[in-house]
Design a protein that fits this description.
The protein is an alpha/beta fold and about 300 residues long. Helices cover about 45% and strands about 15% of the residues. The strands form 2 sheets. A 5-stranded parallel β-sheet has the order 7-6-5-8-9. Strand 5, helix 7 and strand 6 form a beta-alpha-beta unit. Helix 2 crosses helix 13, helix 6 crosses helix 13 and helix 7 packs parallel to helix 8. The radius of gyration is 19 Å and the shape is globular. It binds phosphoric acid mono(formamide)ester and norvaline (NVA). The site of phosphoric acid mono(formamide)ester has 8 residues, from helix 3.
Length: about 300
């Protein structure tokens, strides 16, 4: 594919609602095996570069590529010249000469942008401190398979409102017209600018964004209650963040005010007893293992889209 028409998967907003809906449809079909793509990516290689640790992203992309007939190389930045100051742009130019797509996980979103700009092959966001689009697409798939279309639904996120997962749910709310309730303390609320932008997009599609200080108000009537670790990768935090976020732990009391059919979602890894109680994450309403599995299915769809391969 010529560089000017390459398809990067960097953010939900840049990919857009229509393509995301197609990716979700395809992911469901691939999971249900009503569509097959076993040789679709034969002779294609994805190089994954991790500047931060990963279990799910690394393994689910690896398995997705293999199951589509392609190959994969997973690299830690510590083993690369990136660690000695080679720029992301130069790295991308070189990797583009060997591989057919690049995935980057990094603490610094500007490094992903630099790679995408310099690469002549598609670049995929494998998580930055600002966003985690592959994860939220898998979360939406999980919601849909349990509860039907997510368009216009009430969903809640409790905990650190400043992290990559919360920021990407704000984007998703704007795209899917969600009524997103963010339960977080003022010390860990998303920026006003981000909330206003997502709120106006969500309202255009019949949704809304509400930032709530009361965790029970945030979860009330919600069909999916979500949370994430209190301390994200690359953050150095003492006890003060834990103290501020402890009222926002997702426990039975929180789940009891959610909709009767509400599910619990968590991107994982989880810390039981911190952001979620063991009863909830290991309980009947938890969908976290399906959610982790669905990373692989949505990523198959993402890879096929990046490579422009129709099935
Ligand atoms: N949820 C997620 O991205 O997990 P990893 O950090 O293990 O990739
Ligand atoms: N917010 C978490 C997500 C992990 C998948 C982090 O960045 O560490």
């Amino acid at each position: 594919m010529p560089a000017e028409s390459k398809r990067d998967f960097l953010a939900l907003e840049t990919v857009g609602h229509e393509v995301l809906c197609n990716l979700l449809r395809q992911a469901h079909a691939l999971k249900a095996e009503t569509k097959f793509a076993r040789e679709a990516l034969r002779d294609r290689v994805l190089v994954m570069v991790f500047e931060a640790p990963s279990t799910r992203t690394r393994v689910s992309f690896d398995m997705a590529m293999r199951k589509l007939g392609g190959d994969v190389l997973s690299l830690s930045a510590h083993d690369m010249q990136l660690d000695r100051g080679e720029t992301p742009a130069d790295t991308a130019r070189v990797l583009s000469r060997y591989a057919d797509a690049i995935l980057l996980r990094t603490d610094d979103p500007s490094r992903l942008d630099a790679m995408a700009e310099a690469a002549s092959v598609p670049v995929i966001n494998g998580l930055t401190t600002a966003s985690h689009p592959c994860q939220i697409l898998a979360d939406i798939m999980t919601f849909e398979e349990r509860l039907g279309s997510i368009e216009g639904q009430v969903v809640s996120y409790l905990g650190d409102g400043t992290n990559n997962v919360a920021a990407t749910w704000l984007e998703a709310a704007g795209l899917f017209g969600l009524s997103l309730r963010l339960g977080c303390p003022s010390s860990h609320s998303p920026s006003e600018k981000l909330v206003l932008r997502s709120r106006s997009r969500a309202r255009e599609r019949g949704g809304d964004i509400v930032v709530e200080r009361d965790p029970l108000e945030a979860a009330k009537g919600s069909r999916a209650v979500m949370t994430d670790v209190w301390v994200s990768m690359g953050e150095r935090e003492g006890g003060s963040k834990h103290n501020a976020l402890s009222p926002y732990r997702v426990d039975d009391r929180v789940m009891s005010v959610a909709s009767d059919d509400a599910i619990f979602l968590h991107c994982l890894p989880a810390h039981r007893g911190e952001e979620v109680s063991g009863d909830v994450i290991d309980g009947a309403r938890s969908a976290v293992w399906d959610e982790a599995e669905n990373r692989m299915h949505v990523q198959k769809a993402i890879l096929l889209w990046c490579f422009g391969v129709e099935i």
